[in-house]
Structures are given as structure tokens and as C-alpha cells.
Amino acid sequence: MRETLGDSTVAAASLAAGHPGSYFGSYSVVGLLAVVGVLFVAVAFGAGRLLRPVVPTPEKLMTYECGVDPVGEGWAHTQVRYYVYAFLYVIFAVDSIFLFPWATVFAAPGYGATTLVEMFVFLGFLAVGLLYAYKKGVLTWT
To answer: Which of 5, 72, 115, 117 makes the best surface tag, with the fewest CB within 10 Å?
Structure first.
């Protein structure tokens, strides 16, 4: 039976059998692409360093913000509430990342009830975090 199969069918069968050569071959392509990407960035930064003019002047070395000369110290305090907004954004971004795969698994036969319970537990944790942020007054913009 094997002799009657075409070359592509035999190659597909050996790939499906999980031979180590084909398994690591797919990772070598990803590794090669990562190396090419790193080299591309390194060459671009190196070329920029070699080609740019270097003429430091006191005006160029002075700290500025939005083109305005600085007034006072260069050190400024940042309020913590902005970090809280960033954390809330990350929470909801992670929530949306997990909801899309959940919807595809939920549609698969045999996973419906278990997946539904797991997702409601996950959404419950997010709801508790959001309720905590609301009770602390984090969600009010001042």
C-alpha cells in the first residue's frame, strides 16, 4: 500500500507520525526568522550610529519638554493613580485576550459546560477586581 501512495502523501504521513526531524525543522525556521530580525535591527541601529552627525552643543544637551526651556528641577513626581489606570487597562486587555479563545473552545463539542464554568470563574475574579477599584474610588476622574 505504501508504494502506491504518492510522494506528497508519504511526506504528509511521516509528518503526521511526528518524526523529530520535521518537529525541530519547524522550530528552526522560527529561530532563523528571529535571528534575521535581530540582525536587521542591529544593522539599522549600527548604520544610524555611523551615518549621523555628532556635534554636541550645550543647547542640544539641555533637557526640554515640548520645545520649552525647563523651569525648576528636572525631577518630577508622578501620581500613583495613573499606574492604577494602566493596571486596569491591562486587566481588561487580558480579559479580551482570554475571551476570544474561550469562544472557540466553547463552540467545540464536549467542552461546553466545563468551559462555561471556568469562564464565569475568570469573569468573577475580574468583576471582584473592578468592584474593588470602584469602591476605592479609582474609577472617578479628578
So the answer is: 72
Distance of CA 27 to the CA centre of its chain: 20
Tell me what the mean pLDDT of segment 69-81 comes to.
Answer: 69
Q: Is the pTM higher than 0.70?
A: no
Sign of CA dihedral 61, 62, 66, 68: negative
Instruction: Tell me the HSE value of 88 on the side-chain side, using a 13 A CA sphere.
Output: 18
DSSP state, 65? B
Output b/e per residue, 120-132; b: 16+ Cβ within 10 A. eeeeeeeeeebee
